[in-house]
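Team,

Forwarding the record for the chain on the shared tracking sheet. I've put the sequence and predicted structure together so nobody has to dig through attachments.
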Amino acid sequence: MMVRKYFKIEGYWEDSKEEFSDLIVTNYDDHELDEDGNEIDIDVFEYGWSEENLKQSLNTPDVTGFVITNYEEI
C-alpha cells in the first residue's frame, strides 16, 4: 500500500518566469479523507506527484507550464 505524502514545491512559471513557493503537491490522485469520510481541507495545488516525479522534474520545464526548482516533504 502506498503511503500518502505531501511536498512543498517552489519554482517559477515557464512563460512569465514569475517565481512561486509553498505550493503543495501530493503523490495521491484524490483528496485525503478523515475517519468519518469527510475531505480534509488541505490546499493541494496538484495531485499525483511522487517524490521520484519531483526528482526527475527538478529544473526541467514541465508540460504544465512551470519549473520546479526545489521541493521538501512536509
